[in-house]
Amino acid sequence: MNPDLALLQPYPFEKLRQLFAGVPPAPTLGEIKLSIGEPQHATPPFIQRALADNLAGLANYPTTQGADALRQTIAAWIARRYGVAPPDAATQVLPVNGSREALFAFAQTVIDRSGGHAKVVCPNPFYQIYEGAALLAGAQPIYLNTLPHTHFEMDWAALPESAWRDVQLVYVCSPANPTGKVMTLDSWKALFELSDRHGFVIASDECYSEIYFDEAKPPLGGLTAAAQLGRGDYRNLVMFSSLSKRSNVPGLRSGFVAGDASIVKKFLLYRTYHGSAMNPAVQAASIAAWNDEAHVRDNRRMYAEKFHEVTPLIAHHLDCRVPDAGFYLWAKTPIADTEFARELLRRKNVVVLPGSYLAREANGINPGADFIRIALVAPHEECLEAARRINDFCLSL
């Protein structure tokens, strides 16, 4: 067996299951599950129809590169959304089966394990796929703490120059999971300068980019930052996007990567062997989804309404605020995050995720400790009811 499998930690939701073992939830209250970032808003009917109307394509093997029409649709969407020249659909865009599998597979393409010193930088707290991808590619993860006193910004200067020399890949998540922080242009500039100096690749996870609260101010993306800083070739940068959150289709498993053509070419080679071609019916549904923004605006409106009403209720007792973007509240707890989550289930039947499960100890601290992640993905009234229960629970502490 691959010995690196022994390095993997249990996934956060496995830890949560163990934490809740033997804990009876409040018997008179229905469960409200806010622990997992699974969109619960309805899938738009036109996407469902596009999927159903193209099942004849199941009789054909799809190509790993995807249909020209899909790549061109994605390239056009990138241009509209990010205000950049359309990337070359043939060389700079590649459909993927959801951003999760692509984020993992990307490290297997990028990492050169021959020297035995490869390092991968990721934010801390973080999406655990980054860590697993690094470990199974033979690299050492380096955790860069994102903390309240720096407004959860990635502090590139916190990593000494000696450590950067062995870095081959940097994962960034903007808007961030779980804090919702959006990287600034200055932060991108500093990261690009480090990449130029040390030659590492940047994987920009932007799967939450379409959940934000001001239609006039969409979150800055990596491609936009690169273009504004004179890096129109997107050298050493690949961004990852997905329809899951944007269009409420997590089960569709559809996304894309876009950026540096030389890296996309190598990633396509890897994926040809990996067997990652997208189902033709899914490609058709994806074209329909990327071509429509009305349903995305409606989706944002529903999240904005929930955040507007829920955040003040929870902030009355727990330190939290509306994030830059995304659908998580990152709330400070007055007791240990694990105890808070366990007792909230027992007394109020509300499920949240302890922040310590999303982070690793680095520089002597676990930056997720004494925080909880609250995913406002449930229907509006359920989120409000959860906020009221959390308030009642906090009053009892």
Automatic annotation (TrEMBL):
InterPro entries: Aminotransferase_I/II_large, DapC_beta/gammaproteobac, LL-DAP_aminotransferase, PyrdxlP-dep_Trfase, PyrdxlP-dep_Trfase_major, PyrdxlP-dep_Trfase_small. Pfam families: Aminotran_1_2. It comes from the Bacteria. One of its GO terms (biological process) is lysine biosynthetic process via diaminopimelate. Its cofactor is pyridoxal 5'-phosphate. Residues 32-390 form the Aminotransferase class I/classII large domain. One of its GO terms (molecular function) is pyridoxal phosphate binding. The keyword Transferase applies. Gene3D superfamilies: Aspartate Aminotransferase, domain 1, Type I PLP-dependent aspartate aminotransferase-like (Major domain). Keywords: Aminotransferase, Transferase. PANTHER family: AMINO ACID AMINOTRANSFERASE, L-GLUTAMINE--4-(METHYLSULFANYL)-2-OXOBUTANOATE AMINOTRANSFERASE. This is Succinyldiaminopimelate transaminase. It comes from Sulfuritalea hydrogenivorans sk43H. The lineage of its organism: Bacteria, Pseudomonadati, Pseudomonadota, Betaproteobacteria, Nitrosomonadales.
